[in-house]
Automatic annotation (TrEMBL):
Cofactor(s) annotated in UniProt: pyridoxal 5'-phosphate
Gene Ontology molecular function terms on file: pyridoxal phosphate binding; transaminase activity
Signal sequence coordinates: none
E.C. number: 2.6.1.-
CDD domains, alphabetized: AAT_like (cd00609)
One of the GO BP terms on file: amino acid metabolic process
Sequence ranges assigned to domain Aminotransferase class I/classII large in this UniProt record: 33-382
Protein known as: Aminotransferase
Root EC class: transferase
Keywords, in A-Z order: Aminotransferase, Pyridoxal phosphate, Transferase
UniProt xrefs under InterPro entries: Aminotransferase_I/II_large, AspAT/PAT-like, NHTrfase_class1_PyrdxlP-BS, PyrdxlP-dep_Trfase, PyrdxlP-dep_Trfase_major, PyrdxlP-dep_Trfase_small
Organism: Pyramidobacter porci
Amino acid sequence: MSLNLNREIAAIVPSASMVTMAKAKRLKAVDAEIVDLAGGEPDFDTPRKICDELFRQINAGYTHYTVGNGLPELREKIAAKLRAENGCAGYDADSVIVTPGGKYAIYAAVRALVNPGDEVMYLTPGWVSYPAIAQAAAAVSVAVPLDPDEGYRITEETLEEKVTSKTRLLIVNYPNNPTGRVLTRPEAEILRGFVLRHPDVVLLSDEMYEKILFDGNENVSPASYADIAPRVVTVNGFSKCVAMTGWRIGYMAASPEIVKVAAKLFQHTISCTSGFIQKAAAVAFECGEEIEAMRRAYQERRDFFVGGLNAVPGVHCEMPEGAFYAWTKFDLPGMDSNQGGEYILNNAKVVGVPGVSYGEEKGCWMRFSFATDDAQLRRAVANVARMMKGLRK
Ligand SMILES: Cc1ncc(COP(=O)(O)O)c(C=O)c1O
């Protein structure tokens, strides 16, 4: 019996990071020596205050549907944060939809903005789900490769090379998964110029890692430019910066026209984001100290881990400016990143996500997460050093 399935969705490749995470868990269950650096989530617990609020809400019976795009008090807090911390003066509570995870916010925004056959540009190396989400909307995803030899800097030429009359959306993500790069002011100006030159294009800025910044780097939110703000969608959430991956809560902020259309999809597919989770997430705005403590820990781990990898001949990793990933190039002759990933797993017992999953076709790049404890990171560096030494003998 042959079924008629949705062609676009059936053709989507499974999320490489989810597949690798599942594989790492399977391997670790039978071999405790495996170092799992594949996952994209903090190893820290969610701050206590947030968990306490969740239990308080559930015990008080706050377990019913909520109405609208999110609890008004949470949307107000999010909008106030976007105005005060990100300089996005145009946002108010009505600009915000609270979604089950940032991923759904991206999906809702893409579905609200593109029609079948439209083109969605996204920068590579880039997060694995952007092309898949575009594909689910029957849009055409267009990778915009940034050059490692230029420090993955955005240039006007690279953007102009890929834009066509069908382009409706450009997706950017800073701090970046997987490279750890942040958006500089000059690059933000390039994005601004691009949006101004192309009136049919909307910019989606995924700022999911915005508080995980190192060495005094700052996050630039494109929606802080008033002249392009109506054509910018800002996506953020609580997963990475507040260690709330499993809670599934995030948000999008956009102009009233975009929110109106995205809200229709949201209402009919999700109804509402869980009320007790929203109440608890509101407490995240009082967790500045906990968030900063995690950031400091990531910076210490980054220094140790990236420093350690760079001391190994044949291994190179640019110092990440934000997020918690080491985007690492291996000199493994004749191997692409899939083969290299297998080699590293078999010979160093370290699991990372192959670079090709992020659109990096050339060379053997791997993404390792350093959101894990020091002992695991030490073991990973020692094993990689031993493996590379063996290879060079
Ligand atoms: C760049 C980026 N954006 C969005 C997300 C989705 O986050 P959430 O867990 O809130 O859905 C992730 C998670 O891996 C991510 O890395």
